Amino acid sequence: MEDKINEIKSDLEKDLANVKDLNDLTLLKVKYLGKKGLITDLTSNMKDLSIEKRKEVGRIVNEIKEEVLGKINALEEELKNKELTLKLEKEKVDISLPSRKLKRGSRHPFNRIVEDVEDFFVSMGYDVVDGPELETDENCFRLLNLPLGHPARDAQDTFYIDEEYLLRTQTSSVQARTMQGNIEKTPIRMICPGKVYRRDEDATHSHQFGQVEGLVIDKNISLADLKGTLELFAKKMLGENTKVRFRPSYFPFTEPSVEVDVSCFKCGGTGCALCKQTGWIEVLGAGMVHPNVLKMGGYDPAIWSGFAFGTGLDRFAMFRYAIPDIRYLYTNDIRFLEQFDRKDDENEIK
Ligand code: DAH
Q1: Tens-digit pLDDT profile for residues 186-239
Q2: Domain membership flag for residue 104
Q3: I need a surface site. Which of 65, 105, 150, 312 has the fewest CB within 10 A?
Q4: What value does the mean pLDDT of the chain take?
Q5: What's the 309 CA to ligand 1 centre distance in angstroms?
Q6: Is 265 in the pocket of ligand 1 (CB under 6 A)?
Q7: 137 Cβ below 6 A of ligand 1
Q8: With a 6 A CB cut-off, is 310 part of the ligand 1 pocket?
Q9: Are residues 215 and 274 in the same domain?
Q10: pLDDT digits (tens, 9 = 90+) for 147-195
Q11: Which residues contact 246 (CB under 8 A, 6 or more apart)?
């Protein structure tokens, strides 16, 4: 028995010395303390012994068991610590390394203008509304006092889908929708920025461009309200010193109609290439909502009046950022788009 125990002890020392990781240790545990392990084996012929002997062997076996367990546990602790240190070592983060640059997108110049326009009108209590780009002839023309065969339709080279459906040529279509949609016929204050489509294309025209429409309907709305609103709007978009001029004009959906010029923000009105030496740049169409349009929208012109206006958004973007060709706005060249964070800081007109 004693020999056996000594043998186990010396084997254990050797085995312990060979343990490299926790896996090895588990195997070693099984070898010595498992159900068929070397130590358990010591008690295999106990039943043949006298009670006295049995007691003694039991004590000795327990002792050696404790001893082996103690050694195994100590080694286990040591190995676990070693593994943890190794893991921490491996996962070390070098906080002095420069971070990877995140590629930041930038806001499209067109959207910058739209956001400014929305900010201005929302601050004046307007709703921002939306309308579909695929429109009906009815909303785009007929309800705006442009019946079939009206000569002003020719000016708007329309992409027709079929007899009734078309790509809207003007956001004015949303005037018709908003009046129709307002079942209770309450006052309206809305703008609608959006895309429109026409069949021309050159450096200053694109088959697709942006407009913003405005419509106000209430009681006692007059041309003075229109003038005041558009004057403030022009100053907000093009600078405090901007002067505004109204010229009589014609639009089928307004009466009277005006075209709105702003003093040239490049030369300040003295005349330059941008304003073709006139000192003025035309930016808006507007007028008092035509009684026919009010009637077709369900508003009694004897009670209600209103004004409307429409303007090209791309032109504002081109003015503000000195963009020479409108088509740049629609090609989405990243090198073109990236410039505008910087330009906004330099040019911001407040
Ligand atoms: N829809 C016109 C256009 O595309 C612009 C316009 C002019 C809109 C006068 C209006 C307006 O609301 O009253 O040329």
Answers
A1: 999 999 999 999 987 776 778 889 999 999 999 999 999 999 999 999 999 988
A2: no
A3: 105
A4: 90
A5: 6
A6: no
A7: no
A8: yes
A9: yes
A10: 988 887 876 689 999 999 999 999 999 999 999 999 999 999 999 999 9
A11: 227, 258, 259, 260, 261
